[in-house]
Every structure is written in structure tokens, then in C-alpha cells.
Design brief:
The protein is an alpha/beta fold. 45% of the residues lie in helices and 16% in strands. Helix 2 links the parallel strand 2 and strand 3. Helix 5 packs parallel to helix 6. Bound molecules: zinc ion (ZN). The site of zinc ion has 5 residues, from loops.
């Protein structure tokens, strides 16, 4: 059964250094198409550059919310907020992404969203960084809406936080911006949020972690997702499926996740394959005929 990997990081270490070998191996395992997803300006450019090598490789560009956490000391230190640096960074992100979009190559904007999982510390730092994430998220959603591109969402928060959490805030922002299409990549979060997102037309992305014995909640989300809204992702080099857990996730390992969905969860892989082309607006038949 052919597989479309809708979320993969050939643009990140350690896969970046051997992406040709990995893409070759993936194709031998029936992975016909892949979307390479950017996490900041540099990795978005890398995604575009790799995707140029094959008509079946696509690139999505965006600035991941977790990136701000990595650069936190650039923006806030103790009680000092460097507003000018924040504004400069946001302008830079916008200009760089617009320039990439203008080439016509990116097929989606992402991965973007809100990630409060690591913003555990209370007080100023948390507030400044979550505000920065929201600003960057909104400006990227506006780019997606203006250019009619689907959006790949990364949303993560601590399960126990039920009020003013990343999940609810993402839904509120999505409602205001109405992107053409969006996927909850590597889905997590309360069922009420999933249901609300599905009502807004969300696609849901499932990864290797659905195969983990303790991942009952993800399987519950799977069970309430209409089959025509399911997308399959590796998120390689992260989230190797159960059989390879603890190792670097290599793109071909998506076949294990696909087998699990078909065997254990009795889903229709042909439908999921078809969904990927619809989500990214790729002319299914023509491409399969040409390259399949
Ligand atoms: Zn990712």
C-alpha cells in the first residue's frame, strides 16, 4: 500500500546529513510522497532546497513556537523584556516567509502554533514567550490565508492545564483567521478540543506514538476522527513507532505505523493516502501516473 508521509524532517539532524539515502530507503518501502516541514527560517529554506530534488518531495515553511523557548535569553532576561529585539525578530520571520512564499514552491505553512509545554515557569518569562508565540502564530496564519495555503499546526500543553491553555487559545485564533485547511499535527489534547477542531474542518495527524501501549488517549482521538480527515506522519527523526522505540525515527518506519492503523485499528489506508493529496491540493492521479 503506498504511503504519503505528510510530516517529515529530512531537513533536521541527524537525517539531514543522509537524506538522500533515507529518501531512497523510504521509496523502497512504498513511501511515494513526503512533505518536509520547516521549524524556523533556516530549516524551512533547507526543506525547500531538498524538495527541489524530486517532484514527489514537498516543502512546508514556518516558525515553530518552541523555537522561541530556545532563544528565550535573546528576548527576556530576569525582569527585562527586549521589545525591540522581539519586534525585529517578528519582522524578520514575516519577511523571510513572504519571500519564500513568493517563489510559489511551499505547499503549506507550518509547523506553527502554540507550545506551552515547556513554559513551566510562572511569571514574566512565560507571559512574554506565550505572547511572542501568539504574535508569530497569527502573522503566519495571515500569510497562509492570504496565499490560500493549508496550515500544519503544532500544539502542545500540559494535560492538566484546562483553562487558558494552548489548545483553547489555538482554537480561538484559528476561528479569527480561518485558514483554508489545517491539520493538528502529532495530535494531543482534550477530546472537547478535538471535537471543536473537527467541527472547524480540521485534519488530524497521527504518528508513531499511536502504537505505544499507553497511548490510549491518542487511539481515542483516532476513534472519533472521520476517516477522510486522517493524515499519516512520521515526524522523523522523532517518535519512532513501538517496534523501534528509543531509536532515531527513520522515515521508512512510517510503514510500521501504517500496519498498526490497518491491522489493529482497522482503518482504510487507501482513504488516508487519498486524504494527503486533498489536504495539500496535489493532483493525485496525474502524479501517481507520472511517478508512482
Ligand atoms: Zn515536526
Amino acid at each position: 500500500m503506498p504511503i504519503f508521509d505528510t510530516h517529515c524532517h529530512y531537513n533536521l539532524d541527524p537525517i539531514l546529513g543522509e537524506w538522500q539515502t533515507q529518501w531512497h530507503l523510504a521509496q523502497k518501502n512504498d513511501i511515494t510522497h513526503t512533505t518536509i516541514v520547516g521549524t524556523d527560517i533556516q530549516t524551512s529554506k533547507q526543506a525547500l532546497s531538498i524538495a527541489k530534488n524530486s517532484k514527489n518531495l514537498f516543502a512546508s515553511i514556518g516558525y515553530h513556537p518552541g523555537t522561541f523557548e530556545e532563544h528565550a535569553p535573546d528576548f527576556v532576561e530576569g525582569q527585562t523584556v527586549y521589545s525591540e529585539r522581539i519586534n525585529t525578530e517578528l519582522k524578520l520571520i514575516k519577511n523571510e516567509l513572504l519571500e519564500m512564499v513568493s517563489t510559489g514552491q511551499p505547499i503549506a505553512i507550518g509547523e506553527i502554533g502554540l507550545d506551552y509545554y515547556r513554559l513551566r515557569s510562572k511569571g514574566l518569562k512565560r507571559e512574554v514567550l506565550s505572547d511572542l508565540q501568539k504574535k508569530a502564530f497569527k502573522l503566519q496564519l495571515e500569510i497562509a490565508a492570504a496565499h490560500n495555503l493549508p496550515v500544519i499546526l503544532h500544539v502542545r500543553d500540559q494535560a492538566e492545564r484546562t483553562h487558558s491553555n494552548a489548545y483553547l487559545e489555538v482554537l480561538e485564533i484559528i476561528k479569527q483567521t480561518t485558514p483554508k485547511k489545517f491539520v493538528l499535527h502529532c495530535v494531543s489534547g482534550p477530546l472537547s478540543y478535538i471535537t471543536a477542531a473537527l467541527e472547524l474542518g480540521a485534519y488530524i495527524g497521527f504518528d508513531g506514538n499511536i502504537t505505544y501501549p499507553q497511548a490510549k488517549h491518542i487511539r481515542e482521538i483516532f476513534s472519533i476522527t472521520p476517516t477522510d480527515k486522517i493524515l499519516l506522519e512520521t515526524d522523523a527523526p522523532y517518535l519512532a513507532p513501538e517496534l523501534h522505540r528509543g531509536k532515531i525515527c527513520e522515515p521508512w518506519m512510517i510503514t510500521e505505523t501504517a500496519k498498526y492503523l490497518e491491522g489493529e485499528l482497522k482503518t482504510d489506508l487507501a482513504q488516508i493516502y487519498h486524504n494527503s493529496f486533498s489536504f495539500f491540493d496535489i493532483n493525485n492521479n496525474a502524479r501517481i501516473k507520472q511517478y508512482g
